[in-house]
Amino acid sequence: MSYCKQEGKDRIIFVTKEDHEAPSNAELIADDPNDPYEEQGLILPNGDINWNCPCLGGMASGPCGSQFKEAFSCFHYSKEEVKGSECIDNFRNMQECMQRYPELYPQEEDKESSQAEASSSSVSAAPTEGSALPPETDSTPATSTSDSTSLIDNQTAS
Amino acid sequence: MLKCRTVWKKLAPLARASSTVCRQNVRRTGLTSSRIPACVPVAHMSTGPAGGGRENQLYILLVGAACVGGAIYTYRTVKGDSQRYQDRIEEISSRSYKRATAEPATPIQSEPSVILEPEPEAAPSLEPEAAPSLEPEAAPSLESEAAPSPEEPSPPAPDAEVAVPETTELPPADEPVVEASPEESAEPAAVPVVEEEPSPPSEPSPVELTELPPAPVVESEPAAAESPAAEPTEPQPEVVAQSAAEQTTTADEPVVEASPEESAEPAAVPVVEEEPSPPSEPSPFELTELPPAPVVESEPAAAESPAAEPTEPQPEVVAQSGGPAPDSLKVPSHTPYLLIGGGTASFAAARSIRARDPGAKVLIVTDESDPPYMRPPLSKELWFSDDPSVTETLRFKQWNGKERSIYFQPPSFYINAEELNGAENGGVAVLTGKKVVHMDVRGNKIKLDDDTEISYDKCLIATGGVPRNLQVIERAGEEVMKKTTLFRKIEDFKSLDKVSRNVKSITIIGGGFLGSELACALGRRSTEYDLEVVQMFPEKGNMGKVLPEYLSNWTTEKVKSEGVKVISEALVKSVVCKDDKLEIKLKDGRLVKTDHIVAAVGLEPNVDLAKSAGLEVDSDFGGFRVNAELQARSNIWVAGDAACFYDIRLGRRRVEHHDHAVVSGRLAGENMTGANKPYWHQSMFWSDLGPDVGYEAIGIVDSSLPTVGVFAKATAKDTPKAATEKSGTGIRSESETEDTATSPVASLTLAPTVEQHQDEYGKGVIFYLRDKVVVGIILWNVFNRMPIARKIIKDGEEHADLNEVAKLFNIHDD
């Protein structure tokens, strides 16, 4: 059973698992998904890509940022049957650029490792916002074949 | 003077009167002296003005002294004025000279005075020419810097002033780079060579200008003009250059100075010809800085001299230095985005700007010698590393096994400062070891400690802060200060690591985040190195200002179990150094003997620029006062530890946490690129004190507020380590923000046994209330629930039953 004690101005409540089984009746205000103040996920409400999404890490801001943006935009807006099939050149450019900075964009076979620096920031910053996103970001580069996509995967995965 | 005169006028009659009376008295006395000298009253005590000879004399003396004083004053003033005038002119010349690029300028500059005086001859030739030509040239850029240089070469003392303004204006061919002009004038010799130069030999133009008043003509034929104008002498570029500039006429010295320049120029000239125009700009900068003008340097310089001038193809001439110029000086003179400070907030802003403004050119200026890095591992993960070379590599292992460096990006991410303006896709450049000492908001530019000026379009101030020190330690003297560490930067970490291996006892003063984390880190080492770790603070328990008392006490027990001797309610009264050991005396009489002190007593926000920039400083929280969008002025933003901002939900505050630096830096970067968003996404913070005490928190977490804590019993699964492994994120805080590394290292310790005795406060949620609204939440050993906490604070609602709110966190679940 839960019990309570008061130490001066501080109140302490101890609860058992059963105490917390009943759903909460605390009311939370509904969120407006288009609230401009809120941190946006990878895809903005108007459908554009949010290049400043923490989930992208430093991909859009590094030395190969412009190539990455081109490739990813092309992919994002691609309406082909095989999404992104017309973007091979863009991805190739991006890969070439990344190969010039092996320290920043490690070209490892092993997807998970060496992420550390590649995006520097790596990790999706937006946890909650991000929770909805990962599946999205994971799937988008799916068709891409270059290493870069694996990098993206790595980033979002971490 | 006038006063003197009036006074004299007033006193004169008196003096005369008194003297007359005096004389009369004397006569009378004389006449009567024979009879009764003593009869005549010697009215020397009288108060009247005509009182006696003595008074007269006094008057005369006073008046005389006043006059003499006045005369001396006048003389001094007049002399001083002219001297000051001279000095000012020289100063202007030398200043413009410095800025002017070419090295040749430097040598010339160094001799401004010398040149000025000794070269009267040179002056005439250069000056007159310079004067007329310069006027027409009055280049748009008018960089005063440029002006001085021309001045130098030709500054005859008297005309110096005249010449200076002229030279400044001179920018030979409408070059924005005025600096070039000075060079030009200096190097008449360059002129001939210039002709061949592909880039418009701006240099020559000035020279020419002097000769040929009509600017257009001059500019068009810089070469031609220059030769004739420049110099009286020469056909040979080299020789000419020298003589031209200095006007050889005279002094060997000036000539010598000029020569390096000149020679540089001529030599450079041929070289320049082959050089692409861009380098010219940078060279001036560099040249100026390097007085010795080796031929090599002169090349760039040469290119610059002509280049300096207008011709340069680069419009940004002014901006950059890059190019062949010698190292260090390559500082762009203009950058669209300037970030002052090279810490977390600055880096986050740089990333944000680059993401939103394609091809943005961002310049970070920092007085540290390292590129941007994250601070939390300096007091946590780095201490737990098994790698003996960790102080060099600065790499640490995160919980999930991934290793990373504390640097946000490896050096290859950044581009060189000098290449910034030329980079077609922009980039981020970091200028290390340079401190911004002055900020001119009106002129949109800053000045570095080496007198370089950089202008900007948008500026971010992210200067962070410096650790506070205890007054008793500051007053205790050099010996004590040598054994004290104020912990903040990488070098503090390196030095403390070294110290911890070599001493027997370390005392940490301060019971907040940094103090407690360091105490725990060092405490873990205490067993390996036979090191005594003491922590003392005025509060009752660790984190006394953050955690409610019961939790603070519980935490203190945890810290003690990490091997730390905790002395609470300790106020330091004095510190002395005795027999190479430090003796700390507390107010209550206790004495602590130790080898080294680490002071972790707070951070003083760095607002040095507030004065010169005219920015507001907050009196309650310290730091620069900015609005909810982190803006101080229309194109100045402040982020990170130094920003006292308005939080729409929680009111005005200043936050010194890592995640806040990331969030505010990112927001500032967004606003610098036009987002106009207020601070809305609440930042969080975390701390781990040992392997089984860890918490994440958000909002205002002040122990003076009333709190409501809801706890469940902790199981073995509720430790920070377990949390990270479980969520698979590896780094607890990475799930919240980027670049954060947390997670205490698994320390073998006694986790299981500890748990048993653990009080009831195994895991739970603590709400901090202000006027019945939740303004802060601590997630105690409960992880990956931060978004819910953030939501509750964002709503800002009054909840009747906080237990219901606590249910949202599912604290019993793992």
UniProtKB/TrEMBL annotation, chain A:
* Residue ranges of domain CHCH in the record: 64-100
Name the domain of life this protein comes from: Eukaryota
| Annotated spans, Disordered | 102-158
Do the record's keywords include Transport? Answer: yes
Instruction: Extract the Pfam families matched here.
Output: CHCH
**What cellular component GO annotations does this protein have?**
mitochondrial intermembrane space
* Keyword terms, alphabetized: Disulfide bond, Mitochondrion, Oxidoreductase, Protein transport, Redox-active center, Translocation, Transport
Q: What Gene Ontology molecular function terms does this protein carry?
A: protein-disulfide reductase activity
Compartments annotated for it: namely:
Mitochondrion intermembrane space
Compositional bias per record (Low complexity), positions renumbered to this chain = 115-150
Among Gene3D superfamilies, the record links this protein to: 1.10.287.2900
Provide the GO biological process annotations: mitochondrial respiratory chain complex assembly; protein import into mitochondrial intermembrane space
Q: Do you know which PANTHER family this protein is assigned to?
A: COILED-COIL-HELIX-COILED-COIL-HELIX DOMAIN CONTAINING 4
Specify the protein name.
Answer: CHCH domain-containing protein
UniProtKB/TrEMBL annotation, chain B:
**What chemistry does it catalyse, as a reaction equation?**
A + NADH + H(+) = AH2 + NAD(+)
Species: Etheostoma spectabile (orangethroat darter)
**Gene3D superfamilies, alphabetically?**
3.30.390.30, FAD/NAD(P)-binding domain (3.50.50.60)
Query: Which cofactors, by name?
Result: FAD
Which PANTHER family does the entry link to? APOPTOSIS-INDUCING FACTOR 1, APOPTOSIS-INDUCING FACTOR 1, MITOCHONDRIAL
- What is its subcellular localisation? Cytoplasm, Perinuclear region; Mitochondrion inner membrane; Mitochondrion intermembrane space; Nucleus
Q: Which domain of life is it from?
A: Eukaryota
User: What residue stretches are annotated with the Mitochondrial apoptosis-inducing factor C-terminal domain?
Assistant: 668-795
FAD/NAD(P)-binding domain residues are 338-664
Subunit structure, as described in the record: Monomer (oxidized form). Homodimer (reduced form). Upon reduction with NADH, undergoes dimerization and forms tight, long-lived FADH2-NAD charge transfer complexes (CTC) resistant to oxidation. Also dimerizes with isoform 3 preventing its release from mitochondria. Interacts with XIAP/BIRC4. Interacts (via N-terminus) with EIF3G (via C-terminus). Interacts with PRELID1. Interacts with CHCHD4; the interaction increases in presence of NADH.
Enumerate the InterPro entries for this protein: AIF_C, FAD-oxidoreductase/Apoptosis, FAD/NAD-bd_sf, FAD/NAD-binding_dom, FAD/NAD-linked_Rdtase_dimer_sf
Q: Which protein are we looking at?
A: Apoptosis-inducing factor 1, mitochondrial
**One GO CC annotation:** mitochondrial inner membrane
Please provide the record's keywords in A-Z order: Acetylation, Apoptosis, Cytoplasm, DNA-binding, FAD, Flavoprotein, Isopeptide bond, Membrane, Mitochondrion, Mitochondrion inner membrane, NAD, Nucleus, Oxidoreductase, Phosphoprotein, Transit peptide, Transmembrane, Transmembrane helix, Ubl conjugation
UniProt keyword annotation of Iron-sulfur present: no
On whether Iron-sulfur is a keyword of this UniProt record, the answer is no
The Swiss-Prot or TrEMBL record annotates one GO molecular function as:
DNA binding
State the function annotated in the UniProt record.
Functions both as NADH oxidoreductase and as regulator of apoptosis. In response to apoptotic stimuli, it is released from the mitochondrion intermembrane space into the cytosol and to the nucleus, where it functions as a proapoptotic factor in a caspase-independent pathway. Release into the cytoplasm is mediated upon binding to poly-ADP-ribose chains. The soluble form (AIFsol) found in the nucleus induces 'parthanatos' i.e. caspase-independent fragmentation of chromosomal DNA. Binds to DNA in a sequence-independent manner.
